[in-house]
Design brief:
By secondary structure, the protein is an alpha+beta fold. The protein contains 4 helices and 3 strands, in the order αββααβα. InterPro entries: GIY-YIG_endonuc_sf.
């Protein structure tokens, strides 16, 4: 059995998918576009905030309450690869830039 320290070290070595994702309301076609160093965790955070009724985006929260969770779909728009050789990469800035590029490329207009 592994020690807590070994488990903690393994967790630190894990690479989570980072990038830009959308949550689409299939009833209205409106989308929430966001980015994260760990997309799955960020989506889980959005869901918890919505479940408890305290999401920061009031329009998104209102539609979630009206249409229900089953009418929202999570999808990855672009993924950012981890540059293991680079130590000075500002991934938050890279993700913001990638999100801006995705919004322009797909001409996303129906945003929350």
């Amino acid at each position: 059995m592994k020690t807590k320290k070994e488990l903690k070290d393994e967790y630190k070595q894990m690479k989570f998918p980072m990038g830009v994702f959308q949550v689409k309301n299939i009833c209205t076609n409106k989308v929430l576009v966001d980015n994260s160093l760990d997309m799955e965790s960020k989506w889980n955070r959005h869901q918890m905030e919505l479940k408890f009724g305290n999401h920061g985006n009031r329009d998104f929260q209102k539609d979630w309450n009206q249409y229900g969770a089953e009418n929202f779909v999570f999808g990855v728009l672009a993924e950012l690869k981890n540059d293991e050789g680079e130590n000075n990469v500002n991934y938050n800035l890279e993700l913001k830039t990638l999100q801006d590029m995705v919004l322009q490329e797909f001409e996303v207009k129906n945003l929350y």
